[in-house]
Amino acid sequence: MATFSFDIVSEYDKAEMNNVFQQVEREMANRYDFKGTPAAIDWLEDKKGLKITGSNEWQIDAVLDIVRKKLASRNVSSKVLDLSKTVNESNMKATKEVPFVEGLDQGKAKAITKLIREKFPKAKPQIQGEAVRVTSASKDELQAVMSAVREADLNFVTSFTNYR
Known about the structure:
Order of helices and strands: EHEEHEEHEEHE
CATH superfamily of the largest domain: YajQ-like, domain 2
Strand order of the largest sheet: 6-7-1-8
CATH topology of the largest domain: Alpha-Beta Plaits
Distance between the termini: 14 Å
């Protein structure tokens, strides 16, 4: 009897994030309320996040709102943004670093495996580094696991790879 499997990982599409960045830049250049202000958006090191600059916290929130809208229009979850860092204000400027959330730590992986074990006793989840591998004898069972993980209210983005 054949067994089938797939991996659950927490990663984002770098090309989509690049497209979102370019769209936000374009919209900021065209918006009247950003003209003549220090409002800008830049990459953090190695494109692992965004650095948002504005004249105050309100302007940073406005830029973040544009980022969220562009993410939604490209079907990317805004859970990929780590908004936990505070706004740093100095020299009539405010900056905020917004790194992208990537990778499953042990707590997140355990939450996923617990969810799968409760709902699908025949599917076997196991934590493998920064991924959770789910195996089952039934492809339909794996499809149901995928839907359940998508519908679960997790505070991080999940994607599926390595479907066999």
